[in-house]
């Protein structure tokens, strides 16, 4: 290594004053706004204005790898799926090579799209009595929640399909039928306590009602509030959070006001009902 390389490595990586911790939500928010302000340039100024002892290189890497919503696509169209099929035909489940072939997808995006959506071995449509019985026995064997093990007993179905089928139709603990006035009152109280969208948390206090049942009922009794919640969800999916795809330790619970992006979500006709 020559003197200049050593100096760069010291100044950008090893110097004890450099902040080496994980980027915080507040830092991410500042990087996004400052990158827009300086048109994705002037990283020395950006690092200085963030004020948390980050180097310009750190800020640039964080932006390009995680926060730049123009770097990685999230929605899949027909041409994307066709290209993914070509890549899998060439390389098999070697997702690093598949992602390189795609050009604008991460390895996790390619793997999840294939395994959850377009793998031709995935069965669609109505469940048979035999599949239902196999699913019930698999849940008894492996326990509720172990869907990756459960799906092995129901060939052609994904773990997501198994979960959805069991919790919405086969679980003997499910309570069907109309909600009572007392249940409606409790839903409103728990939403005030935990917030709109915390359906799993709310469901724990409303067993044997399911989170999806509670969400649907809230939409019926508090339509305006639910629509605002759905718009917020759509905003998040179409702005930054999609780029933390399958990296749960990196996800941030942003509010719309914290990020300087323009997005006017619209609900589909079914959600407006």
TrEMBL record:
Pfam families: Myb_DNA-bind_6, Myb_DNA-binding. Keywords: DNA-binding, Nucleus, Transcription, Transcription regulation. Residues 15-71, 73-116, 119-174, 177-226 form the HTH myb-type domain. Transmembrane segments: none annotated. One of its GO terms (biological process) is snRNA transcription by RNA polymerase III. Residues 126-168 form the SANT domain. Residues 15-67, 68-118, 119-170, 171-222 form the Myb-like domain. The keyword Transcription regulation applies. SUPFAM superfamilies: Homeodomain-like. GO terms for molecular function: RNA polymerase II cis-regulatory region sequence-specific DNA binding; RNA polymerase III type 3 promoter sequence-specific DNA binding. The keyword DNA damage does not apply. One of its GO terms (cellular component) is snRNA-activating protein complex. This is snRNA-activating protein complex subunit 4.
